[in-house]
């Protein structure tokens, strides 16, 4: 029998692997391009890659009565993108991805207020365990990093709003439509500052942008489908998996150290995610 919660969790794992890959490419291209260029081309290439898929499904799929929600999601997603890309330029990859692990703590609060979803007692326990895991995984912040951490908190909050908006729209908006409008609107909005922050780009930057677009399209489709299948407050915990992928990429490409504290935190985080999903499988 198909289990929506399990399917949602697996799709969210795929999405987080893609997003960690985008983070790695952003970090790689940060010395070759401005933040405005990275944000615009990440969204533009994702939009281009969505067009053939949308054509195969039919353009009628774009008809919607909830354009205001698409615009709201695009704006919150775009601002969170700028915030997060700034944080990526200031912190090691694994640490930058780890600060976004605050998102699952915020999702149940927003979902409770907005969607009236009441998390179970076991979910609340899992959230507490996840918080402990994040504390273990995060290294001690260096002096003078207060502003970076505040920007990271803003990014995590906006990501939580974006993901809860997906859940709210899922009753009428299929994944392809949601992702297409997100890519379209963020590309349009992010082109505005582009002329003011333009600089020549090497070939390596263009390859990185194409890679971001591919991963963004796959990740957005997987994430949107995940939150359409299962409540945000139940599967949001699997957002923690991004720290695994970020740690792996950081170690492989930048030789960023993997500490025992980080490993312990990751194990606690995954156990928290496991018991959240397990409660619905029993």
UniProtKB/TrEMBL annotation:
<feature type="domain" description="EamA">
    <location>
        <begin position="8"/>
        <end position="137"/>
    </location>
</feature>
<feature type="domain" description="EamA">
    <location>
        <begin position="148"/>
        <end position="275"/>
    </location>
</feature>
<feature type="transmembrane region" description="Helical">
    <location>
        <begin position="67"/>
        <end position="87"/>
    </location>
</feature>
<protein>
    <submittedName>
        <fullName>EamA domain-containing membrane protein RarD</fullName>
    </submittedName>
</protein>
<feature type="transmembrane region" description="Helical">
    <location>
        <begin position="235"/>
        <end position="254"/>
    </location>
</feature>
<feature type="transmembrane region" description="Helical">
    <location>
        <begin position="145"/>
        <end position="166"/>
    </location>
</feature>
<feature type="transmembrane region" description="Helical">
    <location>
        <begin position="36"/>
        <end position="55"/>
    </location>
</feature>
<dbReference type="GO" id="GO:0016020">
    <property type="term" value="C:membrane"/>
</dbReference>
<keyword id="KW-1133">Transmembrane helix</keyword>
<feature type="transmembrane region" description="Helical">
    <location>
        <begin position="260"/>
        <end position="277"/>
    </location>
</feature>
<feature type="transmembrane region" description="Helical">
    <location>
        <begin position="93"/>
        <end position="115"/>
    </location>
</feature>
<dbReference type="InterPro" id="IPR000620">
    <property type="entry name" value="EamA_dom"/>
</dbReference>
<dbReference type="Pfam" id="PF00892">
    <property type="entry name" value="EamA"/>
</dbReference>
<feature type="transmembrane region" description="Helical">
    <location>
        <begin position="178"/>
        <end position="199"/>
    </location>
</feature>
<feature type="transmembrane region" description="Helical">
    <location>
        <begin position="205"/>
        <end position="223"/>
    </location>
</feature>
<dbReference type="InterPro" id="IPR037185">
    <property type="entry name" value="EmrE-like"/>
</dbReference>
<keyword id="KW-0812">Transmembrane</keyword>
<feature type="transmembrane region" description="Helical">
    <location>
        <begin position="122"/>
        <end position="139"/>
    </location>
</feature>
<keyword id="KW-0472">Membrane</keyword>
